[in-house]
Amino acid sequence: MGLFFYYRRIHVKRRERVPLKKSVLFVSNHNNALIDALLIATQSGRFSYFLTRASVFKKPLVNALLRSLNMIPVYRVRDGWNTVTNNTAVFENCSKCLSHGEAVALFPEGNHHINRTVRPLSKGFTRIVFETLSTFPSTDLKLIPIGLNYEQADAFADSVSLYFGSEISAKDYLETDQTSEARRLKNDVWQAITQLTTHIPADTYEESLNKLQAVDADFLNPEAVNACLNSDFQTCSSKKPKQPKMLKAFFKFFMIVLLIGPYVIWKFLAEPKIKEVEFVATFRFGLVISLVPLWLLMVTLILALSMGFQFALIYFTLSLLISLLAVKL
Q1: Is the pLDDT of residue 62 over 90?
Q2: What's the pTM value of the predicted model, to 2 decimals?
Q3: Could you give the domains of the chain?
Q4: Which is nearest to 94 in space by CA: 130, 122, 63, 64?
């Protein structure tokens, strides 16, 4: 429900590719911090456990929140050599979950980044795959690549599309030695993800991004954008025309007026403290689903006590309607 009010549009493509009763390892690009995990959790059709970098679990409140969302800390070398050994238990737990036909999701790039490119993948997910097949050889493990595509990841209200790729059977990677097969699996997963999200090569990133923006490329359609890139910008399609900006600005202005309390807290207290742009949407979403309902209830209660129930109901209904129009138009 929260994502519905936060995003203008959420497009899900080829969700039918997700096995509903098999062991599944989701592997996705990672642009938008916690939002990425929430979208996969709510749109994949599977109850999933998520591997998340351990550094974000440091604060007690965040730690409690993330664990309540089935997120498991995974440790990297940059978190300290002494912590990496904790991954043994983490990977064993993942293998057990997968052996029971459950779903695990991770972001094999290692951390988030807002750029429209898929970076080299870490080897952690291959370790989970081979450990699962070694310990539980009867497990029919499938990897499902996912492409997350944001129109503008740090904007509000943004639109997003999720593209589910064809399943990759883990047992197809048991032909030769594990090192070679792990390398092949990493490459195949990387190739799959680059087909499901916009992938701009690093060496021409700024130039290519500027050209895509100049032709008004539809970043919600990675297949069209990648085709544009591969054709050297000869076959590029533009986004569909949007609603008049004045109308959206009108509703957005009144939404701010009606929700002035949460807006002030976000704009002047919370947002300036965010150091990584990838966390902007996550913290804004957290505010939307926490402070906005509290504000609406508080103001509605005050109006009901001071001006009557009917006036309070008008405010509450109008706030929801205008906010919905400001987001969805």
Answers
A1: no
A2: 0.91
A3: 2-196 (3.40.1130.10), 199-242 (no CATH), 245-328 (no CATH)
A4: 130
